[in-house]
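Quick note —
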Amino acid sequence: MTLQDLIAEIASGIFSNKLRSGLTALGIIIGVAAVIAMLSIGNGVQNSIEQQVMASGSNLLVVIPGSSSSSIGYQARGGAGSGTSLTLADSQAIQQSVQNISALAPEVQRSYQVTATGTNTNAPVIGTVASYAAIKNITMKSGSFVNDLDNNNDARVAVLGATASTNLFNNQNPLGQSIRINGIDFTVIGLANAQGGASFNSPDNDIYIPLSTMQQFLSGTGAMHGYLSMINVQASSQQVMDSVQQQITALLLQRHNISDPNNADFSVINQQSIMQIASTVTSTFTIFLASIAAISLLVGGIGIMNMMLTIVSERTREIGLRKAIGAKNNDISRQFLFESLGLTMLGGIIGIVLGWLISFIIGKAISSISPQVTLQSVTLAFGVSVLIGVVFGYYPARQAAKLNPIDALRYE
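Predicted structure written out below.
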């Protein structure tokens, strides 16, 4: 049998009953589309998290209250502020004693009800110092960030993130306007440029006020011995981050009178640790979702085997006739195997297009996620669909090849 004859036979077998072939291939189409969509969403989420972590500052170390086992919760932000082991005195000691630090910014973060004229929202309020803007790469769209004078005077001033400003003032200019945080009046002195990020964890939701004001009027802890949510430390270079982390750890263990590092009441984490945690979590989640989606590929493969066995049964007399006029077992086996393979390849191609379309729609519907369809995900999904065609088409093809031509010709 020539290649042209083989292709003609495959096309005839697939398209002779279009409805049955389409329904059989549907499992492959759905499976390939689901795998590609899940992998693309997972890649998009991972890239979004990595960009957000990198945008939060370069060469950044974060000291948070609590044991190292709680450090994973740093990214949750909403839980920040509940620790009681870090104070402003600790922050000042780090500033004075640790070498190779280019900037440092303590902060207290709590969520409060914030109101303006006719509007209100629940927003994270961060009490901090002037250096926080440089460390966190915050740039101003208008006005200015809180400064040392504001902290010295316990000024009731606030800087709004882009989303916080929209929630409180719609598209109006917030500068000079008054907002109430937990019942206390503040004057807006600055509007930050949008930084992006997931909506539940975006710095655009934040409102910044002087640290001293936060401790005196909102958290109610007082200045020097008030508890901090975290201390942001910027190392002078990437190469000295490990050294700075070790110095901070040793200093705080000494200040807190802790001899065993395993009993530390604080954690020092860096961007690399955060990236590794985020990558591990998102990769595991992506693989889990893709594995679930791949089950439909298995179901589709079973459907193809069932269809091919039915076709072999329907074409028993044809097989007997072909073998009687000289067709070899390999010719018969190859015909049915390639017919199965052609069906899965067609389903795989349609599934790739559908998966890309689903990813595109999700990207448009959810602005914080940018799904990325990669060559690896397409190759993986299509390769698996082809493998399924071979695996589940092999048995029906062998059954067809083993038919006795005399018995096949007698078959009714």
